[in-house]
Specification:
With 367 residues, the chain is an alpha/beta fold. The chain is 47% helix and 15% strand. It has two domains: 180 residues, Rossmann fold, CATH 3.40.50; 165 residues, Rossmann fold. It contains 15 helices and 13 strands. The strands form two sheets. Strands 3-2-1-4-5-6-7 form a seven-stranded parallel sheet, with helices on both faces. It has a six-stranded parallel sheet with strand order 10-9-8-11-12-13, sandwiched between helices. The longest helix is centred in the N-terminal third of the chain and has 23 residues. The radius of gyration is 21 Å and the shape is globular. The model has no long low-confidence stretch (mean pLDDT 89).
């Protein structure tokens, strides 16, 4: 495949880690193939990408964009006004940067950016992480050159001829004895498990005495919003085997020390579970569009590659299942083996191959 001298790419989207980590992975792969590639991120002002992207060494421009409220609300007038402002700003950004390609990873900001890019003649590629397509990507699909997806059966959302099943781009994750030892040292554990999310937090707190007496070791990611309150509730508890953190920055090490993951069923979490071959209990969030996390989870559950607990049941049943899985070594082996079978370890490279294909066609006038 031709190696272009200097690719100028805009990558747009964000709002959650599920959008941001794929975007960073794609950018890193482009830079790895050619260090002279120039990449500009476009995100939404006030969202987490405005901090996470610069921390990775990339420039980002923010748009004053947000999502419409599903119920009738006067706030939608402000949303509409900001949408117009965002379209104007996106137009200026595209004209100033003059990209060869624009890549959308989902989230509010990708809407105005990819829409304006296509109108100005810039080829676009979409990356859809979930088994249920996001509304922004569905609206942008008509003018996209390619749509990279993680699940089969996405023809119900996108034109079939544009779909490429690549899997989700994820962080660089490896499983090894050396990384496991590094993780055990970092988390101050002899062995490990990883937990974290509001319902999960409540389930752990409800069963904290049971966990302490069992001597199970836990790496517990509470989320920053809940961290201080949880620390207060635990201040009189002897939790030396429970490592409580607001955020785990070294997830590669967390995966290496974990015998069992308990997590939401976001698309990137699902992809990382498969890539690392971990046993997992999934608790789909009920607060997402079209219950897409349940669909994500069932893609593994139906292949006996993970277990699932409904959010409404988690406080009462989750910890019983955790103890059952930790006692059942054969069950963990089955989950690990089956999750590995679903992994797509070269997803990011495949997506960048598609970017290169689009640029080659553009260069030869074969769009």
């Amino acid at each position: 495949m031709k190696q272009f001298e200097n690719i100028r790419a805009i990558i747009s989207g964000g709002g959650t880690g599920g959008h941001i980590f794929p975007a960073i992975s794609i950018a890193n792969e482009l830079k790895q193939r050619n260090s002279r590639s120039e990449i500009l991120f476009v995100g939404a002002l006030g969202r987490m990408e405005m901090e996470k992207i610069p921390a990775e060494g990339y420039k980002i421009i923010g748009l004053p964009v947000s999502g419409f409220k599903r119920k009738l609300s006067l706030k939608n007038l402000t949303v509409a006004y900001n949408a117009v402002r965002s379209l104007r700003k996106a137009t200026r950004v595209i004209r100033d940067f003059n990209p060869d390609i624009a890549i959308g990873v989902g989230g509010y900001a990708s809407g105005p950016t990819l829409r304006r890019a296509a109108k100005l003649g810039v080829p676009t590629l979409l990356q859809e992480q979930n088994s249920y397509a996001g509304i922004t990507n569905k609206l942008l699909a008509k003018r996209a050159k390619k749509i990279c997806v993680a699940y089969t059966g996405m023809e119900k959302y996108f034109p079939a001829e544009k779909i490429v099943v690549t899997g989700n781009p994820v962080r660089d994750l490896k499983i090894s004895d050396s990384l496991r030892n590094e993780g055990l040292e970092l988390f101050n554990l002899r062995m490990g498990g990883s937990l974290g999310a509001r319902t999960i937090n409540q389930a752990i707190l409800k069963n904290i005495d049971r966990l302490i007496s069992s001597n199970i070791q836990v790496v517990w990611q509470t989320g920053s919003y809940y961290f201080d309150d949880i620390r207060k509730q635990l201040q009189d508890k002897d939790i030396k085997q429970i490592r409580v953190m607001d955020f785990i920055s070294r997830m590669d090490l967390a995966y290496n020390v974990s015998d069992l993951l308990v997590t939401r069923a976001g698309a990137i979490s699902i992809s990382e579970i498969c890539l690392t071959g971990r046993a997992a209990i999934l608790i789909p969030s009920p607060n997402v569009a079209e219950d897409h996390q349940t669909k994500n989870a069932m893609a593994l559950v139906n292949k006996e590659a993970a277990l699932m607990v409904e959010d409404s049941d988690a406080k009462n049943t989750l910890m019983d299942l955790v103890f059952k899985v930790l006692r059942d070594k054969e069950l963990r082996k089955t989950l690990q083996s089956n999750s590995l079978k679903l992994a797509k370890p070269h997803s990011t490279a495949h997506i960048v191959d598609e970017i290169y294909n689009i640029l080659e066609k553009k260069e030869h006038g074969a769009e």
